[in-house]
Write a structure and sequence with these properties.
The chain has 239 residues and is mainly beta. The chain is built from four helices and 13 strands.
Length: 239
């Protein structure tokens, strides 16, 4: 890794420290316009998420009143009951989003796929910069919120299930992540600007507890009066 990424990972607690853990979990309180737009208002308003740090896996428990938990992996999504029996599942779930726009309603499995993909990526950032096959380049300075940030263009390999192959990460003067950009391909390539804040330290790792996602305009600015998703994290644990 080049010095910039090494410095970013060090600011978040360091890659060696992160690799001591196999799972990250948190209580989620979620809001924003997206859930109702997709016909899934209230399902994941308050739940617990757990993600793996060494493989692509995530679970939300409970998954509303539908299932005891979800089970997200790179090429499969499933809903399980309290005895870990599969209630419903779908292989290669990304294909089920063909032709979707931002307004297309989701099935329960599609919601589980979106939520699992999202939270796995979010909770593993910025340590995904050290993941095998992930490439990045320095895109220079970016001024926002009265600060000068550093922008990185990140390219993810086909071996990972992410919202878009090419994304961006912005870090502040302290090298903590301030913002993520991506195009949600499974929702009509909708461009998002995802802001993180209110960092806390958990077992030596710096983790943001607030996430706010807005539409992103062609010039890179957010549409600040339209909150697509809000996520507040509490009771964060690394194990």
């Amino acid at each position: 890794m080049k010095t910039l990424v090494q410095d970013i990972l060090a600011a978040h607690g360091g890659l060696d420290m992160w690799r001591r853990f196999r799972h990250a979990s948190a209580t989620l309180d979620q809001g924003g316009a997206l859930w109702g737009l997709k016909g899934k208002a209230g399902v994941l308003d308050r739940t617990t998420v757990t993600v793996a740090t060494d493989a692509q896996w995530a679970a939300h428990a409970p998954f509303g009143e539908v299932a005891a938990r979800s089970d997200f992996t790179t090429r499969r999504i499933a809903l399980l009951d309290a005895d870990e029996r599969v209630l419903d599942s779908l292989d290669d779930p990304r294909r089920s989003f063909a032709g979707h726009t931002l307004e297309t309603p989701w099935s329960d499995l599609q919601l589980a796929f979106f939520a699992g993909c999202a939270m796995w990526t979010y909770l593993n950032t910025p340590f995904l910069l050290a993941w095998e096959g992930v490439e990045w380049e320095d895109a220079g300075a970016w001024d926002e919120n009265g600060e000068t940030w550093r922008k990185l263009i990140v390219r993810y390999p086909a071996s990972l299930e992410v919202f878009s192959e090419v994304q961006a990460i912005y870090v502040g003067p302290d090298l903590l992540v301030r913002r993520l950009d991506y195009d949600v391909e499974i929702a009509g390539h909708t461009p998002g600007a995802h802001y993180v804040s209110d960092y806390t330290t958990v077992s030596g790792i710096r983790i943001p507890t607030k996430r706010r996602i807005y539409p992103r305009q062609p010039d890179g600015q957010r549409v600040a009066d339209l909150l697509v998703v809000s996520i507040d994290l509490s009771d964060i644990r690394l194990s």
